Amino acid sequence: MKPLLRVGVPLWSLLISSSLLKICQAQCDSNDCNSTQTGAWTTAAMPTLTAAETATQTGTMASAIPTTVGTFTPGPASENGTTSLHTTMQPEAVTNLQVTHFTTSSATLNWTKPAGGQSFKVQWTDGINNRTENTTALSHTIHSLTPGVQYNVTVSAVAADGWTAGKGQTVSLHTTGQNQRETPALYTIRVAGEGENIENTTTETSFVLKELTPGSQYNISVAAVAVHPSNEGERASTSTFTRPEKPGNIELTERGTVSLSIRWPLPRGKFQHFLVDVNETGSGSVYKNATTANAASITGLGPGRSYAITVTSVAGSFEETSEQYEFATSPTPPGSIMVSLKTNSSLLLEWATPALMEGAQTLSYNVTYQSDGKEMQTITTSVNRPNPVLNLVAIPKSISSLEVKWSYPQGAQASYTYFVSLPQFKTTVSTNSTEIHNLDPGTCYNITVKTVVAPQSESTEEKTHACTMPRAVSNLTVKAVNMTAIQLTWLRQPDYKGHYSYLNDTTAYENYTFSNLTPGALYYFEVFTVADGVRSEVTMISIDTKPAPATNVTVTGSTTNLSVSWRAPPEQVVSYTVLVFQDNQLQVSNKSLDNRTTNTVVTDLVPGVYYCVVVVTKSKTQETNSSEVCRATMPRAVSNLTVKAVNMTAIQLTWLRQPDYKGHYSYLVVARQAGTKVQNDTTAYENYTFSNLTPGALYYFEVFTVVDGVRSEVTMISIDTKPAPATNVTVTGSTTNLSVSWRAPPEQVVSYAVLVFRDNQLQVSNKSLDNRTTNTVVTDLLPGVYYCVVVVTKSKTQETNSSEVCRATVPNPPGSIVVMSKTINSINISWPLPQYMDHKQYNFTVSSVIGNFITENSWFLLENLQSGTLYNISVATVGVCNYKSTPVVASSYTKPHPVHNLTATEVTTNTVTLTWEQLESKPSYLYLVQPANDSVFWSTTVNITTVTITGLTPGSRYNFTVTSQTADGTQALQVSRSFYTHPDRVHPSVSTVSNSSLLVSWRTPQGGVEHYLVRLNSSFSQDEQLVTLNNTSTNHVFGDLSAGRLYSVQVTVCSGPLQRLLWNCVQCHV
Fold it and tell me: Cα–Cα 20 to 30 A to 899, which of 142, 604, 680, 818?
């Protein structure tokens, strides 16, 4: 039966109200609200989340959204009312994540599948852009990466529910760069979403898309464009979502004892679904489910509990979480009230904890009562019988203390205390642990702990049993030691008890012998006193056995050193010492060599002395000697080995005796060529001559001192004979190069050098040419210079010059020919000087059909030529040795004679026919004819000496120019003449003005007019009149005439020397 709850109140009339639970609604910290941690928990009542209302939104949801909302299903209830929830645990992290291959734009990764992982989420970023892909395989290839960029790639395991993800593992990679990559002129970006199509361009390698719809999916492609929009490269595409907006304020629409109903406004834009997180305040439990509606009903909750709720908008891989809100379920009523412990002033009330509210946080009760004739009163209490502590244990801490620990009881409050009791010891603490001191060593105790809420409100006792540690042994010593056995002894404790034993193998006595130990091994010995399974503190000592000796000792030597090596014993060795004796007297002791060492060098010995060597193996405190091995040191080598004389086939060696020279010393001399011994001999003297050697060959000479068959270290020297010279040296050249070839000598040559001299000064030295080379090209010389060449044959230290061969380089050609001027019988040309040449060392040759000419100037005048004739001209540079450069060539015409006798053979009102004559005419001549006046200029070309020019204006003056020219457009001097066209005629009319005057009028003719002549004639000569009028006049009145007389009128149009007369006279009577 559940424990009864009690409260004491004054004895009056009582009115009991149902229990109340403070319901709070508070906004949580933003860091807690954004938590996405998931897990599996057990609590008093678990929620079931169902959809309460379907959200209405324009557009369509992604097809991946489930059509039904999942639920959290509580498990079967236990006897204490606890319900268990079965939810998905986070899978473990992937292991062995590594990059197995990468290129300029892709990378392949693989990993090991962890427990709980069914699929995997691969995320990568370059610090600016983030991408995610899912896979069920254990490897994945990422494409469309940027060359030469570092990426961080994270792989997370995903559980079977498809969204619970484990901890991600991250690896960095760097794609390879691309060489000589062409930079695009710009990039085109195309964005396609539902009802949206956007296109932009940029010259950068990144672009920010703005004013998109939140939570929407967009297909994005980018292509590089080179210079012209039609030159678009292959498009790289990706698909992503914009981040959705987070849901607005969460509202509580209905509250029950085991359920909560909530709703929230739809965010702007789009979303795929919502994730609803429900966390019981204070318990750390987390529940999550998805819904496409903007409302949810959460059932299966515990009564009287506070829950923190967040709602997350999801679009693709993006999530936005709302603020956190807290809502509480309604409490259930307490159990039936029982009255006990009645006094004359109080009653003790007890009741059962409300159903399903065991362990609920901040549970309190309002007790309302009313005495007879008094006002109703209310008190609040949380006093009740507490639960017992959990997991009570006691641990030995020392020989006189124990540590007691427990878990807090179910429903524990900060005000609880805990009563701890032992025989002869009692204490009350407010935490869940305490230490008990001043106990007896090696003694066992019974311990009880009770939860205390208030006087007369205690839990049942929890009991445990523990023993203090016994005292450790003392005076631990080693009594005897041999190769395989060690005996330990120690003293009893002053408070020794009969049930004590000693652990290390276990014995009841104060001594113990260890046998079958390893020789040379260091051992640590530990002794514990044990009482009722509790150990004392440890007492320790260490010692080692005698090691086994080293075997297979070998000794080799030099003049002052002996090299010692040995085989290590199979048993343990701490270190080695090498001892060296001469005539049983210790000379050297290498005292401490590492146990990994199996060889050493003993130095600073005397040459030619007989020594004996012993190798000592050591453990920590013991040592063993090996058998003795003896050997003599080497004699000293000779010194100051030199070459005294060298010729083509013989070399003499000399050297100095050793300071400790002995009469029985001899010398071994060896000659080697290319690693092969070619001569050797023995001598008792300090010199030796080798003969019959090969010219130009490199030799290595070795000299040993020999004592009783033991050689000293070698003394070496090398030298070579002088090589034979190169023969048949030939030199050919161009402007800046000389090609040199030769015949190699039959004897050995190490290398060649080619020396180039100018005026006995070295200009070029190709210092090292391979001995297989018999030709080379000397470059970067000056054109038109006299050089001498020597080929040098080389051995290692000797060399021989060939005979000298001299030759000049070819001069550079002059620059392009420029025609400076020309006449009818001459052409004047010039050219730039040739590059990189001294002007004092060359001339020029000028060639044409009229002959060849030498000049030191950079110009030349060709004379006595025919007019209007094409001449081909070449110029070449003439250097030392009369070497000529490649010629430069140009072609040019002389000028033709100008035309003469230019005349106009026929003139009309709108045409002029010209003729002329041409001296030394050529069939290819053309004539440029150009008529011009103040308003007209044009030209025509003819190939004959006459032309008729039409379309002219009547009465106008024209300047006619005729120019003769050759086929390439070379023109003679211009010849010009001016001619007028005939003016146009007029048609006058005459009318009588009075009996003494006549009016003559006409219209202005086409074309030009300089003036008019108007003549009046009659039968009487005294009446004749002639007037001159300007070109603007169109009438004239003749006066003072005789009445009744017949008159005739003539109007003449004048332009330049030409006149146009109206021959038919106009007659009229006055």
Answer: 818
pLDDT reported for residue 384: 56
Q: What angle do CA 296, 299, 300 make, to 5 degrees?
A: 155
Structure tokens at 797: 């230290």
Up-side HSE of residue 1021: CA atoms within 13 Å toward CB? 0
Check if CATH label 3.40.50.150 holds for domain 727-808: no
CATH number for region 899-980? 2.60.40.10
Q: Strand pairing of 786-794 and 799-801?
A: antiparallel
Kindly compute the dihedral angle of the four CA atoms of residues 796, 802, 808, 810, in this order, to the nearest 10 degrees. Answer: -50
Phi, psi dihedral angles at 523 (to 5 degrees): -120, 140
**Residue of 358, 386, 382 whose CA lies nearest to 449:** 386
DSSP assignment letter at 857: S
- Neighbouring CB atoms inside 10 A of 249's CB total 11
CA distance 878 to 844: 6
In DSSP terms, which residues pair with 555 in a beta bridge? 564
Report the alpha-carbon angle 307-313-319, nearest 5: 100
Architecture of 95-175 per CATH?
A: Sandwich (2.60)
Per domain, the residue ranges of the chain are 95-175, 186-204+211-241, 251-327, 390-467, 474-545, 551-633, 639-720, 727-808, 899-980, 987-1069
b/e 954-990 (16+ beta carbons within 10 angstroms → b): bbbebebbbbbbbeeebebeebeeebbbbbbbbebeb
CATH architecture type of domain 551-633 = Sandwich (2.60)
Rounded Cα gap, residues 697 and 747, in angstroms = 8
Separation CA 305–CA 282 (nearest Å): 10
- What is the C-alpha separation between 123 and 285, in angstroms, rounded? 28
Longest dimension (CA), the chain: 195
CATH class of the domain whose range is 390-467 = mainly beta
Distance CA 542, CA 594 (A): 21
The single residue listed with the structure tokens 């920590």 is: 620
Evaluate whether the domain defined by 474-545 bears CATH number 2.60.40.10.
yes
Q: Which class is domain 987-1069?
A: mainly beta
The token pair at 445 is: 């105790």
DSSP SS3 for 615: strand
Task: Return the CATH number of the domain spanning residue range 251-327.
Answer: 2.60.40.10
Q: What CATH superfamily classification does 639-720 receive?
A: Immunoglobulins (2.60.40.10)
Q: Quote the tokens at residue 149.
A: 């960029």
38-70 pLDDT, tens per residue? 332 322 333 333 333 333 332 322 223 232 233
Instruction: Give alpha helix (H) positions in 235-355.
Output: none
Closest CA to 762 of 730, 804, 813: 804
Reference 23, options 294, 222, 333, 305; nearest CA is 305
Calculate mean pLDDT across residues 584-596.
86
Write out pLDDT tens, residues 487-532: 888 887 777 777 666 655 666 677 778 888 878 777 787 888 777 7
- Sequence-distant (≥ 6) Cβ neighbours of residue 375 within 8 angstroms: none
Is 479 exposed, middle or buried, given 0-12, 13-18 or 19+ CB atoms closer than 10 A? exposed
Q: Express each pLDDT in 403-431 by its tens digit.
A: 999 999 887 878 889 999 988 888 899 99
Question: Using CA atoms, how far apart are residues 814 and 806, in angstroms rounded to an integer?
Answer: 25
23-32, 142-151, 603-612, 630-639 — which is least confidently predicted?
23-32
Stated pTM of the model: 0.39
Residue 556 tokens read as 């080799």
Q: What is residue 804's predicted lDDT score, i.e. its pLDDT?
A: 93
b/e map of 916-940 (b: 16 or more CB within 10 Å)?
bebeeebeebbbbbbbeeeeeeeee
3-state helix/strand/coil string of 701-750: EEEEEEECCEECCCEEEEEECCCCCCEEEEEEECCCCEEEEEECCCCCCC
Give a three-class secondary structure readout of 336-356: CEEEECCCCCCEEEEEECCCC
Looking at residue 380, its pLDDT comes to: 62
Whether the CB-CB separation of 851 and 756 falls below 8 Å is answered with no
The two tokens of residue 453 are: 């809420």
